[in-house]
Structures are given as C-alpha cells and as structure tokens.
Amino acid sequence: MIKINLKPVEWLKILVLILVFAAGSTASYQILKPKPRLPIFNPTDLNPAVVDDDLERVGRGHRIGDFQLTDQWGNAVDSSLLSGKIYVADFFFTTCPSICIDMGKNFQKIQAAYQDEPRVNLVSHTVMPEIDSVAVMHAYGQRMGAIQGKWHLLTGEKRELYRLARRQYFAVMEEGSSFDEHDFIHTENVILIDENKRIRGFYDGTDDLQMTQLITDVQVLLDNN
C-alpha cells in the first residue's frame, strides 16, 4: 500500500481544488440546464366540446382578442388594460353559493403571491351582468380585498362576456345540443395568459394543488419573459 505523505498546506490546496471543481460543475449545470417552459394552447389542442366549430382547425396563432367591458371602478376598459401583462382569468358571479367561493379564495392567494409584481394581473368576468352591476362588483372586490390595478372585476354586455368565455378563453362547453347553461355559469376553469395574450394553461380553480401549480407556472412565465 502506497502511503502519501503531504504537508497540511498541500492537503488544503487539494481540498480547495476539489471545492472549486464541485462549485464549477454545479454552476455549469445551472447555466446549461434548460429553463422550464409552458405549452401554448391553440384550439386544435383542446377538447372540441369547448371550441366553436369554426375555430376547431385553428392550430396556431390564437390570442385573446379585444373586448369592451367595465371594471369595478366604473372605468370602460378594453384589451389595452392587459397589454404586456401575464394574467389569470376566470368567470364567476358574485352571488354564487358554491364553487365561486373557493375560486375567490384561491384568487386571493394568487394576488398575495404576486402582490408586488406589476407584470401579473388577475381578471374575473361576471357571467351574470344583469345582477353584477358596477356597484355590486365594486362591493365584492372590497370584500375580497381586490387591489386596484391588480385584480380587475369586469362586467358589461352579456353577449360580450359569453363571447369571451366561449371563443377567446375556451372556458366553457360550446353552445349546442350538449350545452348546459348551468355548467357555464358554474365553470371552475381558470386560464393563464402570457404577456403576448396566448393561453398557457388551464386549471381547476377549486383545486388547491392546481392553484399552487398555477402560482408556480406564473413564475415560469416571469422567468422566461
């Protein structure tokens, strides 16, 4: 057996070299490993039941289009409200006694997670504008702690709101023989939109685990922005 006799200072040098090598390897791995990325959803990627027939063959380029609605502060708003923003969208109504309660609580968590990140917004569209006036939406926002400029509560013409849900966000079953208005009003779908207005994820707004994943996915978009 060969015995190696080294002075303490020489052992120290070897140890330093080993540590430098390990640190360099770790740093190289962190630099070279690919960043996580989210899919981009187009109509052809989705269940045809949530896509209107004339959009089912659209395989690329889908973006959330313009809209004309009103926020909880009484301001007329359009798509410029969300220009360059990463945002989370849902459809609800303020008097919903069931799933909307859980969805609202989860939106509070998302808001808290990104309260100080100006690139992230939340958007809740009412599906019962005949009840959810500006005043009602404002009062709901106050109860939920919606931060002005962060969490937008939108109301407006019912036709416009349903168009957005069906043809832009694909949040509900398309209208037809299998369409159930009750299902639409109670949709639990939450949609993640990137800064280019592309759909990057669908989530169950009543599922805590999926909402945790959404919060993580928002950070992925921020890191790749």
What does this structure look like?
The protein is of the alpha/beta class. It has six helices and seven strands. It has a seven-stranded mixed beta sheet, with helices on both faces. Strand 6 and strand 7 form a beta hairpin. The chain is elongated, with a radius of gyration of 24 Å.
- Give the end-to-end Cα distance, rounded to a whole number of Å: 58 Å
The major pleated sheet works out as: 7 strands, mixed
Q: What count of helical segments does DSSP give?
A: 6
Query: What is the succession of H and E elements?
Result: HEEEHEHEHHEEH
Give the averaged pLDDT, no decimals: 87
Indicate the percent of residues in helices. 25-40%
Shape call: elongated
Provide a brief overview of the structure.
Helix content is 37%, strand content 16%.
Could you name the key traits of this structure?
seven-stranded mixed beta sheet; elongated; 37% helix; 7 strands; 225 residues; alpha/beta
How are the secondary structure elements laid out?
Layout: H1 8-32, E1 69-71, E2 76-77, E3 86-92, H2 99-113, E4 120-126, H3 134-144, E5 151-155, H4 158-168, H5 181-185, E6 189-193, E7 199-204, H6 208-224
Parallel strand pairs: 3-4, 4-5
Antiparallel strand pairs: 1-2, 1-5, 3-6, 6-7
